[in-house]
Specification:
132 residues, mainly alpha
């Protein structure tokens, strides 16, 4: 619990535009709870939960570093799978709209994550937020 609280304190230490981005990602992914009876929503929620857990593990070992983006690696196959399912979801405009918004936002987040992980691999290993 202390790790999660510290992680959220670090998120609150980010510039406002990044805090808003993180909140938007959380909201769009957690919206899966409204559609929990559907397989796509369950997979989205599972990938979101796994990503959060992976980030907590990375954070507890390394701090708030650029490598945290690795927590979202399940989004790569998830986005590919969701893209293949879109045609079969026609006739459900609210659900399809949510899936499309989620896919766009998660793809943008993955782009940011890939850049961050590459920067980490190239030596940028300082915490992105230092509360000390």
């Amino acid at each position: 619990m202390a790790t999660a609280l510290s992680f959220f304190r670090h998120i609150m230490g980010l510039p406002v535009h990044w805090r808003l981005w993180v909140m938007a990602l959380v909201l769009v992914n957690m919206a899966s709870l409204f559609f929990i009876d559907r397989p796509e929503a369950r997979w989205i929620l599972g990938a979101f939960a796994f990503g959060g857990l992976a980030q907590m593990v990375l954070f507890s070992r390394l701090g708030f570093v650029r490598l945290l983006g690795l927590g979202h690696f399940l989004w790569f196959p998830l986005l590919y799978w969701l893209l293949g399912r879109l045609d079969g979801l026609s006739g459900q405009p609210v659900y399809v709209s949510w899936i499309v918004v989620l896919m766009v936002m998660n793809a943008l987040s993955l782009t940011i994550d890939v850049v961050d992980v590459v920067k980490y691999a190239l030596g940028e290993r300082e915490p992105t937020v230092d509360l000390a």
